[in-house]
Amino acid sequence: MDVETGAILALQILALCSIAAALLAYLMRQSRNAGDEYELRNKRHVLVTNCDTCVGLQIALALSEAGYKVFAGLPNPLENSPSMKILKAVEQEREKEMDNNDASNDKIQLRTRGQIVPLELDPTREDSLHASLDAVRAKLPAGEDGKRLWAVIHTGGLALPGSIEKQTSSAWESMLRHNLVAPLRTARVFIPLLRVKRGRIVLLGDSETSYASKAGTGLVAFTASRKAVEGAATALKSELHSSGVDVVLLKPPPVNPLVLYASPVLKTVDVESGVTSSEGTWIAPLSNYSVQNSLIPALTTPCPLSSYDMSLKTKLFWR
């Protein structure tokens, strides 16, 4: 090997070593940042206003899995509803994991998932909202800079199908009360607590490709209420800008709203196989990916977008 060839080979090896070192440093930094972010989430408290809906329960579970401490709003937490059965089953499963981890001899420790605290809340009632505000304040830990709530996510909703010609005005008024007036009432009550943390209000709008646009769905009035929420979110974001409280809109995938805002249905017996499902098993309407990859950025990004689309598909390649 001549001197020139040897020098070129040495330079190539040096370049490869430099690239490998830079990649290793990047991965270590990313891992450290991910750990720091998880620890930050674990110190933050979030209120999910209605976990008696499929979308609300799924959001609460996703937040807990990501490390947040969640206040789970329920019409009656003492009732053994499907939502409460699912929450209890999840809590029992986590306790088993912790027990197994403590009993094992390996040094791998499970990340602490966020606690879920059931809370009685009916966002359509002013008295219930104020009572829940007092309950949240009482349960928040007193830190050096006072009690803080990071976010309120309004997941309540009502979808009543029916053609405009035949649907009663009372049905429209009921949907407006649940879908539009309730989140505004919730925001008004919790803004003072969110202002301390410069936190977030998260509202659910309509999907980019509205399910209700399909012929025969009978969801004109429901869609009107959801589009109204989107307009309210834009106006509220501007109004609260100076206070530091941000308003973010989540746009669900084109899933039937009658499923999204219905109570969770527990799986019991598979008719074909005759296999009985484990306690607290249910079929969630959204993919975990769509929830995690829209909700978490909406809560963690220092300057969040005005809206996040929950219809995002899994990416095969990242850069």
TrEMBL record:
Signal peptide: none annotated. It comes from the Eukaryota. Pfam families: adh_short (PF00106). Keywords: Membrane, Transmembrane, Transmembrane helix. The keyword Magnesium does not apply. The chain crosses the membrane at residues 6-27. InterPro entries: NAD(P)-bd_dom_sf, SDR_fam. GO terms for molecular function: oxidoreductase activity. GO terms for biological process: steroid metabolic process. This is D-beta-hydroxybutyrate dehydrogenase, mitochondrial. It comes from Vespula pensylvanica. The lineage of its organism: Eukaryota, Metazoa, Ecdysozoa, Arthropoda, Hexapoda.
